[in-house]
Design brief:
Largest sheet: 5 strands, antiparallel
Strand content: 35-45%
Mean pLDDT: 91
Structural class: mainly beta
Pfam families: GSDH
Shape: globular
Number of helices: 1
Radius of gyration: 19 Å
InterPro entries: 6-blade_b-propeller_TolB-like, Glc/Sorbosone_DH, Quinoprot_gluc/sorb_DH_b-prop
CATH class of one domain: Mainly Beta
Protein name: PQQ-dependent sugar dehydrogenase
Amino acid sequence: MPALLATTALLLTAACSSGGGDGGSSGGSGGATSASPSRQAGEQAPPAMGSVKVVRTVATGLNTPWGLAALPGGGGLLVASRDRGTITRVDEKTGGKTELGKVSGVSPSGEGGLLGIALSPDYASDHMVYAYFTSASDNRIVRVLYDPKKPAGEQLGAPDTIFKGIPKGYIHNGGRIAFGPDGMLYAGTGESGDRGLAQDTKSLGGKILRLTPEGEPAPGNPFPDSPVYSYGHRNVQGLAWDPEQRLFASEFGQDTWDELNAIKPGADYGWPNAEGRSSDGRYQNPVAQWHTDDASPSGIAYAEGSVWMAGLKGQRLWRIPLKGTEASADPQAFLTGTYGRLRTVVSAGGDKLWLTTSNTDGRGAPKGGDDRILELEVG
């Protein structure tokens, strides 16, 4: 088993609104990580030590970027602005920006607003963009038609609401959406600050949901006629699959442990009864865990045998090498403090990643050019 990484404990008492990540972390000891070696046979573990090279800055001058989706064939990157409620196309070669339009109905406040976006599995034929956002009454998922032939600012159609009723709050709105290898739509939700919702399988808060592209509970879900896929989550903002179609999710802790979890249908991930590793067999233990000062994780992506996890309060990119659904070595940090808060990381194919910063979200310290998209080469 790899040794724990240990550093001096830093006792912080900063509240959710004073510089933490979107998990509402209120501090904790800094530096330690936890990861277990895999005992699954038949899979080659990646090297214990990896690498990150910043290839270039793709774009600058973005306002509260949150969701990111790559158009097929090098057609550009779609970026959602949390606070403005707009979607912008970024030319991935020149960095030029074109505002497609505003998603109507977005009501930004606190950690809420226009959050995750994802392209339809049939995007080549239907040109639909899915979006998760906070409205005046709830969090919901809509799909909008993107028509690049229309004038800039008018390229988004009216939202078609496919799913609503996800609890909203000033904090913990979740917001990540992604289509899985099975063609179903997965959504990470938060418990909106109401801890009890996470353990209530009839509530949509503090869950990972699995839906059809039309917004119905997906066939084969663990609870009959329910969109709930897993529960006991505090605030899920990262979803990614490995080549074996195994789902991983990042989760904000409160005072002690942030988590990377391997998701099993119908499983309970413990919140609020357990945070991080637990000896209680009712709850799933994380693949790896971090003190909240070191992570506050949002987006994740899979590349080169590892999950790559963006840290907000931690201001670093974490690499978690995997063998099966377990960590094969200690997590490794990159870009620590170099670009500030990191929000979203998306696979760009092979050993390339897109990474967005999040310094204009009210909790960062914006520098000239913030916020930005970076292109990374990882190994």
